[in-house]
Design brief:
This protein is an alpha/beta fold and about 575 residues long. Helices cover about 45% and strands about 15% of the residues. It contains 25 helices and 17 strands. The chain has a five-stranded parallel sheet with strand order 2-3-4-1-5. The radius of gyration is 27 Å and the shape is elongated. The relative contact order is 0.07.
Length: about 575
């Protein structure tokens, strides 16, 4: 590229990125594969994975109006040396349904959507007017209904023999907002019978030579299936697993590019190691479980911007923009506006937060009225990027929390949920965490949490049990950023419940690290049974403390081995088994 620039902020337009000489992660090698697939394709990926930029790139590649600019935009990319016969051979209609108004009720909603579509179609008529009769543009603009405009264009394009390509970004955004803000009835009215949204998709069928839809969930397309039943879902096809997002090779190449051009300083491998627990670990195909995992684009660029601008990692590894995804979790928990199933959904969220994983029968399509079914809910968590594939058990997929960014969303959501039932002073809790991180005074914090757990009577039945006790404790430990609460560390002697791994890179003055062994016993347990359980916990802690990985990670801190024992919702024992200083020289 002729001029090296930094990291673009929010650019999702391919032409703008290439004209601005920004670094572009080359995904053009997927274009021939897309052309080998059926003509009407459908892909689901979570937000912030580069979907809009990819579709913008497709628009430029297939648009006949960009034929003379092929070398300018694609000459230095993979496809520049491997062009396909379909390059720059279509008239392209490009919709972004996230820009279609969807907050208005009733007839106003239809008018708002028609207005957006009309603007885009009129723009199409203006751009491609030279290919048609002299009155083409004026005729399209004078037709009031966007659906009728499409019908007219279809007739004229077929008369002339012009191939048409339809690309829709955020195909489901319009209806998903309707579902979450206005409820299932309005959603059903839009996508069934003579609903106007359904009528648009019926018009698409047969009009276009090729169609590519992208979104974040399969709900809308399933409800439109009787009117639009021509799509081919490539969402779980292993050949497209890394088409969105960055694989590790791409991240490394991007970092090397900026370092070679003098904008990035530091150890690239150390940067990748630092990013992985926060931004990596996505997998979208069962057949790709053994392949390299995929990084979230938005979060990777957020980290890289900080390294380029300030020569250090961001103070907060979670971009504030991705925190808006927290609202998606709230929406999913109450998506059908029916509290009947809210308990089972909350139980699922608590299980995921506590264990870090859950088994899922992944449903590739389901209607909106079945959204409350627990397997559909679990599938939606995957589609929204709140779970990812990490293994199999028989014919079921093992889904896990992808990374620390997503884990923070779960724990923040649970903390808000618990706070509704029994509010704790979070500022005071933060003070107590400061005390056990810097001074080793751990007792006051756990005493406070134990009281809150005991006093949280309105959710007692829901949270009683070891699994949900873990979720409760993690939710409140996560208010401080000093520790990685759940690094999922496998030790030589098994798995500990909690290893509070100090983030020494950011907080070098942390002096204390902790391994917690959490024991839960039913209310009917005898004193003898409690002591037997406690003794088991003590032995486990002593074993964990000898682990070489633990000792390395706890270097420079005093490692505390804590046993917390609960009987029902009461903490009946909390003790430190051993304390030892792990010196750097060791």
């Amino acid at each position: 590229m002729s001029q090296v620039k930094g990291i673009p902020y929010g650019i999702s337009d391919f032409n703008q990125m290439r004209n601005g000489n920004f670094y572009f992660v080359d995904k053009t090698m997927y274009l021939p594969l897309i052309e080998e697939m059926p003509s009407y394709l459908f892909l689901i990926r979570p937000r912030r994975f580069g979907k809009s930029l990819f579709l913008s790139m497709m628009h430029t590649y297939y648009d006949i109006l960009q034929k003379d600019n092929f070398d300018k935009y694609f000459g230095d990319l993979w496809i520049g040396s491997h062009p396909t016969e379909q390059r720059n051979s279509f008239q392209v209609l490009f919709f972004d349904f996230s820009k279609a108004g969807c907050s208005l009720p009733g007839a106003d909603l239809m008018s708002s959507f028609n207005e957006y579509c009309s603007i885009i179609i009129n723009q199409f008529a203006h751009q491609y007017a030279p290919f048609y009769d002299a009155d083409f543009k004026e005729t399209v603009e004078n037709i009031e209904s966007a659906k009728a405009k499409l019908a007219y264009i279809e007739i004229k394009a077929k008369e002339k023999g012009y191939p048409l390509y339809l690309i829709i970004d955020e195909y489901d955004n319009f209806t998903n907002v309707i579902l979450s803000e206005h409820g299932q009835k309005m959603f059903h009215d839009l996508t069934h019978a003579s609903g106007f949204y359904r009528e648009y998709f019926k018009q698409f069928k047969g009009m276009f030579n090729r169609i590519f839809l992208m979104g974040v969930s399969p709900i809308t397309l399933d409800d439109l299936s009787s009117g639009y039943n021509i799509d081919w879902n490539i969402s779980t096809d292993s050949r497209f697993n890394a088409m969105m997002g960055f694989d590790e090779t791409e991240v490394r190449e991007m970092l090397c590019y900026y370092q070679q051009n003098g904008l990035l300083v530091g150890n690239i491998e150390a940067m990748i190691t630092e990013m992985k627990p926060w931004y990596n670990n996505y997998c979208f195909a069962r057949m790709s479980l053994d392949n390299d995992r995929v990084f979230n684009c938005d979060m990777t660029l957020y980290y890289l911007r900080n390294q380029i601008d300030f020569h250090r990692p961001p103070e907060n590894m979670v971009d504030k923009n991705i925190r808006t995804d927290y609202n998606k979790l709230k929406m999913l928990a109450r998506i059908d506006h029916d509290t009947t199933h809210e308990g089972s959904r909350m139980s699922t969220i608590e299980e995921i937060a506590a264990k870090g994983e859950i088994l899922v029968d992944l449903h590739t399509s389901f209607p909106s009225e079945k959204i409350a079914d627990i397997e559909n809910f679990r599938s939606l968590l995957y589609y929204y990027g709140l779970l990812t594939m990490c293994g199999t058990r028989g014919d079921r997929l093992k889904m896990c929390i992808p990374n620390n960014c997503v884990r923070e969303q779960y724990l923040g959501f649970l903390r808000d949920y618990y706070q509704q039932a029994h509010s704790l002073n979070l500022s005071h809790l933060k003070d107590l965490i400061d005390d056990f991180a810097f001074d080793g005074h751990w007792q006051p914090f756990f005493e406070t949490i134990a009281r809150a757990y005991r006093e949280n009577s309105s959710i007692r039945d829901a949270i009683e049990g070891e699994r949900n006790l873990q979720g409760f404790l993690k939710a409140y430990l996560a208010i401080a950023s000093y520790y990685l609460v759940q690094p999922e560390l496998e030790m030589n002697y098994g798995y500990c419940d909690f290893f509070l791994l100090p983030d020494k890179a950011r907080y070098s003055d942390i002096e204390h690290s902790y391994i917690l062994e959490l024991k839960y016993a039913p209310r009917t347990a005898t004193a003898e049974e409690l002591e037997t359980q406690a003794e088991e916990g003590r032995k486990q802690l002593l074993q964990y403390g000898k682990d070489k990985i633990v000792q390395k990670l706890a270097t420079g801190t005093t490692l505390h081995l804590l046993l917390l024992q609960f009987q029902g919702w009461d903490m009946v024992k909390y003790e430190e088994i051993n304390g030892s200083v792990i010196h750097p020289s060791e």
